[in-house]
Design a protein that fits this description.
Length: 275
């Protein structure tokens, strides 16, 4: 999930741990169209910039940056819809040393009524890997259409169709959907994630409030425990925690991934509007 889970901090899982491929889970019951409990806490133009750092034993350093943006769809016929964008880029000494070159872009469009996912796209550039992916969900029919084009090998499009929940999320849109909720301690949020026309079961458990320091800024924050490891989305064991501001905006200010003896921190370094 530098990019592809959380996304949102979940997006980092595939950027830094690309070998830990997701595993498909069985279909599970989800609400047809859950309602948000409060007003949308962000507007078009919000931009959040994060620094991604890696540590294992004596080794530590910056490995990338992640930028999240809220915008409107390209089509001005539907200006009320939300489109979320994420861009992950590798940088720093370790990526230079190991010749890691990543530049991934993601985009997700959701309904303004219930934040259900309608479509998404991915542009993947990771070393020699070059591909473009699109996902479209027919919410009336409950079907997902996935298309992928391998730009490195110049092969034709591969198209897959499969059943889908009428209300679903992807890794990027789920972060923004969670921000629209009231987030009471002890709540467990079920997220049906559709990726590559496959369905995954990821839960988010709302934890305690705490004051955290990110850079030189103190935040009153809420801890979110994202249950993405142990076979739910990622095969191996691990932990993904996200801290969002306690105020109405619920801005993600830090994410922390721990797995296989290493830790990755994703810290907010710049925001517009200011978080």
């Amino acid at each position: 999930m530098l990019t592809r889970l959380v996304c949102a901090p979940l997006l980092l899982l595939n950027f830094i741990a690309g070998a830990y491929l997701p595993v498909q889970t069985q279909n599970f019951a989800v609400p047809a169209s859950p309602e948000r409990s409060r007003a949308v806490p962000f507007t078009a133009g919000e931009t959040l910039v994060y620094e991604v750092t890696f540590s294992k034993l004596l080794f530590s350093g910056t490995i990338g940056s992640l930028t999240l943006t809220v915008g409107n769809p390209e089509s001005d016929r539907q200006p009320e819809k939300f489109r979320f964008r994420a861009e992950g880029t590798s940088k720093g000494f370790f990526t230079w040393l190991f010749k890691i070159n990543v530049h991934d872009k993601y985009s997700s469009q959701v309904s303004p009524n219930d934040f259900g996912l309608e479509s998404s796209s991915q542009s993947i550039q990771e070393g020699r890997i070059r591909r473009e992916q699109t996902l479209t969900i027919n919410r009336v029919m409950g079907r997902a259409t996935y298309a992928v084009r391998n730009l490195a090998q110049k092969t034709g499009d591969k198209i897959v169709e499969a059943d889908s929940p009428r209300w679903a999320q992807d890794l990027l849109s789920s972060l923004y959907y969670v921000r629209t909720l009231a987030l009471k301690e002890g709540d467990r949020i079920a997220l049906p994630l559709v990726e590559a026309a496959k369905l995954y079961n990821v839960d988010v458990v709302v934890g305690k409030k705490a004051e955290i320091v990110v850079g030189k800024t103190r935040y009153d924050a809420i801890e979110l425990d994202v249950k993405a490891f142990d076979g739910r989305y990622i095969k191996r064991s691990g932990q993904l925690l996200i801290w969002v501001t306690e105020d109405a905006a619920h801005v993600p200010v830090r994410a922390r991934i721990k797995t296989s003896g290493y830790t990755v921190n994703v810290d907010l370094v710049r925001s517009n509007p200011r978080a």
